[in-house]
Amino acid sequence: MSSLATSVGIFTGACGNNSFATSAQGLQNNSTVQLNGNTDLSGCITANGGACVYGITLTGSPGIYDYVLNVDAQGPSGFGSGSMYLYFTDETGDRYSLSIYSSTRSTHTVRYNSKKPSIFKIEWSNTSL
């Protein structure tokens, strides 16, 4: 399974804190998220304290889990600023969560198994949903 994204999953949604985006075709394996026409998501998927997501890809993963979401992001900065919470819903309706608390930009991962792994909804929030 390739670790390089070769296509885009087209999502639409409202930008800013505490929002969500959906896709008619879903984020397929070896694809990256394009939200409202942009693959740089930092102006759209945002949370308190300067938290944001720069990019999201879905790839295959050898081992126990078949799929991995790679999320290039940074959490909020400042004492007591909390976390940024992300939720990903696949075609079966299963929901996977990721909490980002470090204000240092890095790649975070969500590994999962699914018979229908395409991601159709992405949610983000300043608080746990």
Main beta sheet strand tally, sense and closure: 9 strands, mixed
The secondary-structure element order is EEEEEEEEE
Q: What level of helicity do the residues show?
A: under 10%
Low-confidence stretches: none
What is the number of helices? 0
DSSP E strands, number: 9
**Percentage beta strand:** over 45%
Radius of gyration: 14 Å
Given the C-alpha coordinates, what overall shape results?
A: globular
What's this entry about, in short?
With 129 residues, this protein is an all-beta fold. The chain has strands at residues 7-13, 19-27, 31-35, 52-60, 67-74, 84-90, 95-100, 106-112, 119-125. β6 (84-90) and β7 (95-100) form a beta hairpin.
What does this structure look like?
This protein has 129 residues and is an all-beta fold. The chain has strands at residues 7-13, 19-27, 31-35, 52-60, 67-74, 84-90, 95-100, 106-112, 119-125. A nine-stranded mixed beta sheet has the order 7-6-9-2-1-3-4-5-8, with no helix packed on it. The radius of gyration is 14 Å and the shape is globular.
